[in-house]
Design goal:
Length: 779
Amino acid sequence: MIKVTENKVFELSTKRTTYGFFVNDINYLEHLYYGKKIDLNNEAFEALKSKQEFPIGNAVSYDEEHQAMTLESKLLEYSTRGKGDIRNPLVEIEYVNGSRTTDLKYQGYEIKEHVEMEELPCSRAKGEKIEDLFITLLDQENKVEVTLIYSIYESDDVITRRMEIKNLGTDDVKVLRAFSLQLDLYNEEYTFTSFHGGWTKEMKRYDQPCIIGSLVSESLVGLSSSRSNPFVMLSKKGCTEENGEVYGFNLIYSGNHQESVEVDTQNHLRFLTGINPTTFSYTLKNGETFRTPEAVMTYTNFGYNEMSHNLHGFINKHIVRSEFAFMPRPVLINSWEAAYFKFNQSLLLKMAKKAAKAGIELFVLDDGWFGERNEDDSSLGDWKENKKKLPGGLIGLSTKIHKIGMKFGIWVEPEGISEKSNLYKAHPEWALKLKDHHHSMGRHQMILDLTNDEVVNYVIESMRYVFSQGVDYVKWDMNRVFTDYFSQSLASEKMNEVSHRYYLGLYRILDTLTKEFPHILMENCASGGNRFDLGMCTYFPQTWASDNTDAVSRMSIQRYYSYGYPLNLLGCHVASHHNHQTLRFTTLDIRFNVALFGQLGYELNICDATRKEFNEIKEQVKLYKQQRDYFVNAKVYRSSFDTNNVTLSVVSEDKKHAMGVIMQHRIAAGKWEDYIRFHGLEENAEYRVYSKGYNHSLLRFGTLANMVSPIHLKEDRGLIKLLAKFVSMKEQGLEYNVKGELLNSFGVGLRPSYIGTGFNDKTKLFGDFDTRLILIDQK
Ligand code: GLA
């Protein structure tokens, strides 16, 4: 709800939060409050507002009449350069005389029903009554109008912000900085948390104290990037998963972004998020408007889990546009790690038939099906089938896959162009590169110039063809980062617009194709999670979160993604026993227990599976299908981090089902107790708690096998090996009923681990990186 009082106090309230600012004596907006819900009445306003009576020595007063108006000492709702605020500003504009001073004054406001942007992905009301507040600011002398736009998502406790800059003058103006969101706060020992990584190591969490100066998390590689995800947090000291104050921020944008925290000597903290100014500027002619991407913020005093719930609900309801948003997803099998570039149609069909028998529903043909693509150094841009590999083309293969009873999916990388391609021969000027200069390649390829409409139209046309070949699913990849921000189709003075204009082009492509092919399930990928952001999530209901399919790495990658993104957005695959990225061996059970907390897929040669493995896969697929209906909008809970035991649990929206996983990193000698904490279950309801049992090979006991085996074998290795073929050591699963209140306050205690003094069927054999999965259903 938006309330505006007579003394021009703006109160924006959601279910459990209040956000406030007011128009001060010089017609600037001062920030008042963002936190737990309060009544922002007159008394509260008087109590909250800055009470500066005199200027600070050597600071600049806004004007002679308002001596105490030293902008550097105020909490501001927006900021510019040149009028006394010395911190990094929200907006910076260069005028034709070279000046960068901007003096924006409040003009008025309007409340409207939610307005969506055309050229950029943005939040959508989707049937909810969402109010937008438009605040108009004007620099009278420079003839520049700035509009601050707030959208209030009451039920999710989310407020979004964006900005528009319009040139009303006759001279051109150059926008140098146009952030989407500024939040000024009193610094109360905040911690700035950002998530960084790289290929196969996405989303490592970094916590840095906000003391003095600037902390910056940013991407300069042309994609939102796995180097620095745009999702960040600011939390107060002592915040845990279950308790404490925390703000979460994200940006609906896929290009270079920057999130910064600046603390000054008065202990004021300024947070900014938006387009990275280092690779950006934008010239506006008379009458032209620049729109920033939309930024998202949430606040809670109930810890990180609750902050995640706010964002997850908002993303599922108001960001993901696809009709698949709340649909359970098909189990897929992907050909990449099974065959890489070495396949022919008969191998694909063999894999598909076997997969269908296991209950897998979607067959995805990854890279290598087009042009002369037998390695990763050619053919990007030539989106026609390689008839040697697919004699009947895509349509022939998809018809056959459909006949097997599966859906058919395909990999594409439409933004890439290989030097070895017909497209490059015909249009070398379509690559983002300097003409006649050496160009640095990434994965032997270049990036198409999506600032050029002709190229945008080519991509739409070529994908229209691919998408029409009986395709039910598309994995849209992008496998390099930007180097030359240079378009051969733009005038030289516009080169600093390339990084942003590229995304305007990409968003036009995605908008067109997703509208034309709404029935296609789209998966976003950029060498894994190199472009996992809310901009892409608008078009893609799922993302291939990392090229790393190692269950141990994935457990941490997926858990950290869950701070900012719902788990149902993550594609998670069970890959080969010796992982291709780490060569670590993990059991099929471990790989599945981790992949189950995402959209399940398999990425291994299922034809190589032993009968035992195949049956296990069949069981896994069956279990996933039982859980997937509620998984799409389940609440995720992380327990406070124990470095050796990582746990994750999800609870269905109606609180009828839950599941939790624990991964032990290293066997801890003498430690037998392990728990999974559950949260959010109905206190008085009765639940069935259960887990599967295990048959452990006798060989896992080494030379102790003779002690634990039912027959005494002395130390005869040959006999032990032989016996191991017929006898296994049982570990019983759990099976009991209990009330929700117990699960919420204590959790589920697992069977005790083997600690060196005996083993029976009520003991668990819990190895390095082992997992256990607990399932819970309301009775
Ligand atoms: C990228 C993707 C992989 C796979 C390959 C194919 O690396 O992240 O999943 O699709 O491309 O070349």
